[in-house]
């Protein structure tokens, strides 16, 4: 791709994301789940036909991917790079409008998904603790690596560190958090840690938003394993279940 084609491509993608309804659709898909056009139309507050047109444009520009299962059609973000770009734009957007007062619910700011890893205040606090305790070591320009004490910490969680290191994606890296404007843990290690937290029910995932609720077990484990105390209301599993919306997890 030459320079002129590159400029055109950036302009087209920027224009597609700039449309408010499309922005809401893309942000709704940042939790890694796939949703139907009907669900996305409701989220974007547009008609079904308008939603279909928006999704066709996003698909044309490789921002979303269509999944067909029988008679059902679902849309997800094309890949994690789209989520990372959106997260970065959120940070820039806040800097561009310093007088803006965020209306983002406290619960979403405290803990949420950033595509396939954890974001929010809790994730930033955990990221800082991992570095402070020496479990993660900052390799300038190359992200993070585990220390001799960090290796057994993650192995004790059932995470196969060697398998993660063999993946084509970065092993562990800082990901700038839009609400905190400081890094949380991204990369393969960040994704694996979120999956452990979900599997062990340390957090419960809200399927109609990116929010994560910390359970009583999660609070205990955060203190025991990492030495941090989540300062938020403990999520009730029953209350969480009542908010579930039909989605397909394609991570």
TrEMBL record:
Residues 2-97 form the HTH arsR-type domain. InterPro entries: ArsR-like_HTH (IPR011991), HTH_ArsR_DNA-bd_dom (IPR001845), HTH_Metal-responsive_Reg (IPR052543). Pfam families: HTH_5. PROSITE patterns: HTH_ARSR_2. It comes from the Bacteria. This is ArsR family transcriptional regulator. It comes from Pseudomonas canavaninivorans.
């Amino acid at each position: 791709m030459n320079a002129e084609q590159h400029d055109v491509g950036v302009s087209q993608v920027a224009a597609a994301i700039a449309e408010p309804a499309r922005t809401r659709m893309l942000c709704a898909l940042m939790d890694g789940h796939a949703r139907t056009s009907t669900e996305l139309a409701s989220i974007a507050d547009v008609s079904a036909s308008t939603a279909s047109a928006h999704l066709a444009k996003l698909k044309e520009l490789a921002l979303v991917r269509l999944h067909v299962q029988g008679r059902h059609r679902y849309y997800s973000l094309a890949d994690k790079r789209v989520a990372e770009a959106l997260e970065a734009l959120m940070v820039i957007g806040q800097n561009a409008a310093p007088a803006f007062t965020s209306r983002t619910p406290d619960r979403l700011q405290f803990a949420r998904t950033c595509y396939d890893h954890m974001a929010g205040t809790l994730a930033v606090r955990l990221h800082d603790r991992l570095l402070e305790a020496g479990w993660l070591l900052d390799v300038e320009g190359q992200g993070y690596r585990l220390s001799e004490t960090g290796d057994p910490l993650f192995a004790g969680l059932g995470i196969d560190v060697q398998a993660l290191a063999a993946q084509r994606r970065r092993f562990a890296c800082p990901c700038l958090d839009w609400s905190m404007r400081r890094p949380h843990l991204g990369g393969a290690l960040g994704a694996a840690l979120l999956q452990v937290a979900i599997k062990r029910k340390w957090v419960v995932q809200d399927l109609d938003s990116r929010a994560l609720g910390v359970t009583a077990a999660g609070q205990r484990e955060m203190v025991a394993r990492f030495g941090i105390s989540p300062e938020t209301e403990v999520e009730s599993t029953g209350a969480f279940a009542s908010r579930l919306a039909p989605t397909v997890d394609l991570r």
